[in-house]
Design goal:
It is built from twelve helices and 18 strands. By secondary structure, it is α+β, with helices and mostly antiparallel strands.
Length: 399
């Protein structure tokens, strides 16, 4: 099987040849690049557009580009976008209707053929996120056919994580910096005295065929060892961690916790966390009519459980307070998602922490809920906990 093919090595020219081969197949190549002071996902026409020599510094409510001396292309953690921006666009037209001169109405479904995507540089956390969205949107009784059409022909080229960010916590979310499946090719970047190169592992027949079109050489022990060491080291350098407790039981058992009031006092209910989350999938529909009234369109757009009208029923919304909306989001993400889809809805990418304008930290909130419950039970574990390399309070004090 192609998935067990021996690892290979690409140099920087080989990575460029990989992009050229993908374009020759008629694929739309999407990967990370630097734009607007961030590493964003965009269409690429050359590997030269990758963020060579750029890294990032992240913390709660903070994101900064930083220059690197080693020229690495994938030594940055997750940016503000995820691959759902392409698989499930923020806005799309479903159909349109036009009034005819004789007073009739003609409906036109939006059925344009989606691009044949190749995603280059997919982080392991995002590989898991794509797998989660696959289960949610195509694995049940009611498939999202638009998502399914986009997803069906996507070629996934992973980039294993060797430089976790300050808000990453994939290991404690059940993942890790290694690509453990779901990819066509997996790259591990190595920059050392022996040069700048990429260890390549094959995960599918399509990946094997692609690799055959690109200049490469058999992997040597030095490159394999350096790649393995870099990924292992990344596992030990996560910037955050979730507490080692039954999160499902903790969240569903804490609806009346005082901590919800504390976080609600800071939360702006802006929905940034749901917009940047790679697994949040909620949408709504809207009708848009032109001034003549002769043309109308139905569009689908992302929605958020932080939106006041998200829980609207006849007479008004069910969740009117920021407290109830934040509690709904966190409880669903880490607990009741299991009841619906058989897994957690969190992959530990840390985007919700980085891009929260007031720096709310999901790992800190879970730890605080756990500490509050333990204190009520009289076990005396409330106080402090370690997150990454620092210690923070788990009471009502905000870092």
């Amino acid at each position: 099987m192609a998935a067990t093919a021996h690892p290979a090595v690409l140099d920087r020219d080989g990575l460029e040849a990989l992009v050229v081969a993908l374009l020759a197949q008629g694929r739309t190549v999407v990967g990370p690049t630097v734009r607007d002071s961030a590493v964003v996902l965009a269409e690429l026409t050359s590997a030269a557009q990758l963020p060579y020599g750029w890294g990032v510094e992240t913390d709660a409510g903070r994101y900064r580009l930083v220059r690197r001396a080693d020229g690495a292309a994938f030594a940055h953690s997750a940016g503000p976008q995820s691959w759902k921006n392409f698989l499930r666009p923020a806005r799309e037209r479903l159909w349109s209707a036009d009034r005819t001169p004789d007073g009739g109405v003609v409906f036109t479904e939006e059925d344009a053929e989606p691009p044949s995507y190749a995603f280059l540089g997919v982080r392991p956390c995002d590989l898991r996120a794509i797998a989660v969205q696959d289960r949610v949107l195509t694995g049940g009784r009611f498939e999202d056919s638009r998502y399914g059409r986009r997803r069906r022909d996507v070629l996934l080229i992973a980039a294993e994580c060797t430089e976790p960010g300050g808000t990453c916590f994939c290991v404690s979310a059940g993942g890790g910096p290694e690509a453990d499946g779901g990819y066509d090719l997996a790259l591990t970047e190595v920059v050392d005295d022996a040069g700048h190169r990429f260890l390549v592992r094959v995960g599918s027949e399509a990946g094997a065929r692609l690799l055959e079109q690109v200049p490469h050489r058999a992997a040597d022990e030095g490159t394999e060892g350096a790649a393995r060491d870099a990924v292992d080291a990344a596992r030990e350098r996560m910037g955050r961690t979730l507490p080692e407790v039954d999160l499902r039981e903790l969240l569903t058992g804490s609806p009346g916790a005082a901590r919800w009031d504390e976080v609600a006092a800071r939360c702006l209910t802006c929905g940034n966390c749901t917009m940047v989350c790679p697994t949040c999938f909620c949408v709504t529909t809207e009708e848009v009519t032109d001034l003549t009234g002769d043309h109308t369109e139905r569009r689908q757009r992302w929605d958020s459980c932080f939106d006041l009208d998200f829980s609207y029923l006849h007479g008004g919304p069910v969740r009117t307070s920021g407290r109830s909306r934040y509690r709904q989001w966190l409880t669903h993400k880490l607990a009741t998602w299991y009841d619906q889809f058989g897994s957690s809805g969190c992959v530990g990418c840390g985007r919700c922490i980085t891009w929260c304008p007031v720096g709310i930290d999901i790992t800190e909130e879970v730890a605080a809920l756990h500490a509050e419950r333990e204190a009520k039970a009289g076990t005396g574990t409330a106080g402090t906990r370690t997150v990454g390399t620092g210690t923070v309070r788990t009471g009502t004090e905000v870092r």
